[in-house]
Every structure is written in C-alpha cells, then in structure tokens.
Amino acid sequence: MKLHYAPASPFVRKVLACAILRGIDGQIETVATDPHVSPAHLLQDNPLSKIPALVLEDGRAVYDSPVICEYLDTLGEAAPLFPPTGSPARLTVQIRHALADGIMDAAVARRGQSAHPQDEARAAFIARQKAAVERGLAVLEASPPAGLGDVGSVAVACALGYLDFRFGHEPWREAHPKLAAWYAEVSAHPAMARTAPG
C-alpha cells in the first residue's frame, strides 16, 4: 500500500499510529506529498487534493483519515481499534474520534490563517478556531481516554501532539491536568513516539 503523507499532518499521524497498533506499518510505503500545490500524483488518487490518501494494492484509493483507519482495522492480527458495529462502545469511540478530528481541523485551520496578514475578519476566524479547540479540550478533560486501545484515543493523542507541535507556547496542560497526565503516559507508546512530527 502507498500513503500520501506530510509529516506535520495530525491526520496522517493518526493513520500511521493506527497502522503501527495493527502491526501492519511495514506494509505501507509513504510518499511525501504537498497537498497545497495539488500534485498530479495526489490528484490521481484523491481529487480533493487532501492527505492522507491510501492507495491499495489493487489501485483503489481510500480517503479521508477516518475511512483509512477503519480500513486498516480490517488488516493485521492485533486487537481491533474499532469496537463491534452497533455496540455502545463503538458509539463512544466514534464520538471521541470525531471530537479529536474537530480539534485537529480547528487547529490546522488556525495555523493556516496565522501565516497571513491579519485583519478583523481573519482575527475573528482564528479566535473561533481557538475557542473550538478549548471547548473540545474541556470535554476531553471531563472524560479523558484510557490507554491507547482504540481509534478515538489515538485521534486524541494526535490532536494533543499537534497542539504541542504548532502551539507549544500555549500551555493547554495547566487547565487540563487529567488529559495532560493521560497524554504523558501514551506519548511514550511506539505508535506515538515513532510518528511524532518535527
């Protein structure tokens, strides 16, 4: 399999961490891709020019990251990262996964806009994204994940890692001690340590 990726993307990191947890990371070839320039090799596999995009052995392309992670969960022999369909646990994991992805979306959008000249509209947009992240962190602090055994917890770890990577000057840990303690524990896991950005 071939994965279009950029090392700074938290969504790519989530996919790679899931592959490591499933024991199939050796089956994935990574292809460095800059989605902002819409290279032909990416557009061939994802018309939206977004990463990650996974190309299967039969040539089919899979995107975006939640779909890729769910596909990877059908491979390998390790414990599944998605609970059984229809179970209460699956809904809990999916909600946490969506919340973490939303935090990543907001943080990535904020980072992208921060590089441009500031005006009132852009400043308001950045403030909305920052507020979305803060609300998401508050929900996670009230009910932090346990361990790194499902895709929701992987996504949360990747979201927190991205905040450290791009907004390390903002001390999110102080207001979220339970979440910070959990993140300190799981950061040492090979799935996180081997995929750290930077």
SSE ordering: EHEHEEHHHHHHH
Tell me the β content. 5-15%
Biggest sheet architecture: 4 strands, mixed
- By CATH, the topology of the largest domain is Glutathione S-transferase Yfyf (Class Pi), Chain A, domain 2
Strand tally is: 4
The mean pLDDT is: 96
**Tally the helices: what do you get?**
9
Classification by helices and strands: alpha+beta
CA-to-CA gap between the ends? 24 Å
> Radius of gyration, rounded?
17 Å
Helix content: 55-70%
InterPro entries: Glutathione-S-Trfase_C_sf, Glutathione_S-Trfase_N, GST_Omega/HSP26, Thioredoxin-like_sf
Domain GST N-terminal: 1-80
Pfam family, one: GST_N_2
Protein name: Glutathione S-transferase
Topology diagram in text:
Elements: E1 2-5, H1 10-22, E2 29-32, H2 40-45, E3 53-55, E4 61-62, H3 65-72, H4 88-114, H5 120-142, H6 151-167, H7 172-175, H8 177-186, H9 190-193
Parallel strand pairs: 1-2
Antiparallel strand pairs: 1-3, 3-4
Helix pairs in contact: 1-3, 1-6, 4-5, 4-6
